[in-house]
Amino acid sequence: MKIAGRVQDIEVSGIRTLFESAGPGSINLGLGQPDFDTPDHIRDAAIQAIRDGKTGYTNNTGIIELRTAICEKLKKENNLTYTPDQVIVTAGASEALHLVMQSLVETGDRVLFADPGFVSYAALASLAGGRPEGVPLDATLHLDVEKAKEIMGGARLFVINSPANPTGAVEGAETVRDLVEYAMDAGVTIVSDEVYEHFVYEREHVSAAAFGDDVITVNAVSKTYAMTGWRLGYLAAPEEYITPCVKVHQYCQACATSISQYAALAAYKGDQSPVAAMHHEYKARRDLIYHGFESMGIRFPIPEGAFYAFVPMDQGLISRVLSKGVVIVPGSAFGKNSPNFARLSYAAPRSTLDEALARIRSAL
Fold this sequence. Notes:
Helix content: 40-55%
Shape: globular
Order of helices and strands: HHEHHEHEHEHEHEEEHHHEHEEEH
Low-confidence stretches: none
Strand order of the largest sheet: 2-8-7-6-5-3-4
Strand content: 5-15%
Number of domains: 2
Radius of gyration: 20 Å
Structural class: alpha/beta
CATH architecture of the largest domain: 3-Layer(aba) Sandwich
């Protein structure tokens, strides 16, 4: 039996492997998933959609009400102007990234992203025939702007993820503007992955599309509204990119789940107080984790957003922590530049985080 080389060369996600192998009594800080329930008004909207028989195919690009609501959200929260015809509703941000890679990347094209960075970028670039290339971070775990410029020439895409997974870093307006403007001059399309935009603690979130036209914005309800399993995201892009992305979308997905679309519509149009409550709790958990490691003598840049801590740990300590029943993800899963780090998700109750810190302390 023959398997396509483009698939054979892709590694199975180390994050998923750890998540699925966690044994009884383990504390799983490996998967980046909110531990909150989806807010009631969103769940109620989905139930009502089922009762109303809204269970068939929708327009390939998504129901017009949701695409309009997304445009209103982008204008109000991000000061970005899009029309519904510039939006494709997708099966999570993951599919949005897949559509972009398949539609814009030719064989051999270079695709740039932070290293360490989210595991999907390199895999999706490779599946599209591209050449993934990591952009190094500086000592504060932010993008090294000058090094990024050095390697940007001739690239096809540059993925900016802020707030970032796995580091929790939030790029400032000056950095984002500098990178976008340089990319526009170099003919490089920016893909701005903004799925953690509502979980920023000391800084402000900045959308890359505010600084250039050749930018594709990717987002989802997954993290913001604790809806990871609903699989509902979107991309917003210049009109020239919509038709090719729809072609891929038609044949791999047809449309996002109709019920999830109506739930997402309620999320964007309804009560936003649950998001503020989650933000408040994540910040408290961030502080708990950060000061807990600080008390052990382990210091690192404080996470500015998302719900991850990227902690310095050698391989021996990572192994001992895993043996204590605390599931964390080795930094090597996120690229070549962080073998002596580990990512911990603090999307878990504070009592659970306290117990995890106690186990890590015993591992030390």
